[in-house]
Design goal:
two-stranded antiparallel sheet, 65% helix, mainly alpha, 2 strands
């Protein structure tokens, strides 16, 4: 897991982009695996869960940063959970009001956002130490990274498992769906493939940087 700042961080583009690549919650830190594997059997489910988690992450982190000096250290974790649970309740009712089918598809994983270690971890390690504007931008980037990860899995699983994308047929009519992709094992297969790809790209990047440093040192 990447080292989080102990001092006040200066706002920069990296504050947002860090969550997309360097500290991606799923592909780098391997956090929040339950919803990643459970609800990504379709693109719509992945988008809905990603947006719901992002809202809770941004709203709770922002509020915690705003009142961080008022929360006693002895009850800080309990206070964070109460704040997170309040926003999860809002999300739960909103999704239920918008679409009962989507609400039923996501099931208990909406309520389980309370226990998502991405949110509680950022509250404890970042929001409780950083100023409001940096916390807002950083949590927005982390939420975007989490949503993109869910979207990456959901898109692959729906296209290969159903031959559709957002319910629209995208594969040829003679395409035989890979039913395993919309079943639980499919989540592990696709996640493993994405993790391999991320590790490969990251390793290539590190080797390229080492080569550049070696060339500059020789010069």
């Amino acid at each position: 897991m990447a080292t989080l700042p102990n001092q006040q961080e200066k706002l920069s583009l990296d504050t947002f982009l860090r969550g997309l690549w360097e500290e991606n919650p799923v592909f780098v830190m391997l956090l929040g695996m339950c919803p990643v594997l459970a609800v990504t059997n379709s693109t719509m489910n992945a988008i809905a869960m990603g947006l719901a988690t992002t809202f809770v992450l941004v709203a709770s982190s922002t509020l915690i940063s705003l009142i961080r000096k008022l929360i006693p250290k002895q009850v800080r974790i309990a206070s964070y959970i109460v704040i997170i649970a309040s926003f999860v309740t809002v999300v739960d009712y909103v999704i239920q009001a918008i679409s009962l089918d989507l609400y039923n598809a996501l099931g208990a994983f909406i309520q389980l956002i309370v226990a998502n270690c991405v949110i509680l971890g950022r509250a404890e390690a970042y929001a409780s130490k950083q100023r409001l504007h940096t916390t807002f931008i950083n949590s927005l980037g982390m939420g975007a990274g989490f949503t993109l990860a869910l979207l990456a899995l959901g898109t692959v699983r729906e296209v290969l498992g159903n031959g559709t994308l957002l319910g629209l047929q995208v594969m040829p009519t003679n395409f035989e769906p890979w039913v395993v992709m919309i079943l639980p094992p499919g989540g592990f297969f696709v996640l493993g493939a994405w993790l391999l790809l991320f590790a490969y790209v990251r390793r290539r990047r590190e080797l390229r940087l080492l080569e550049q440093e070696g060339a500059s040192g020789a010069a």
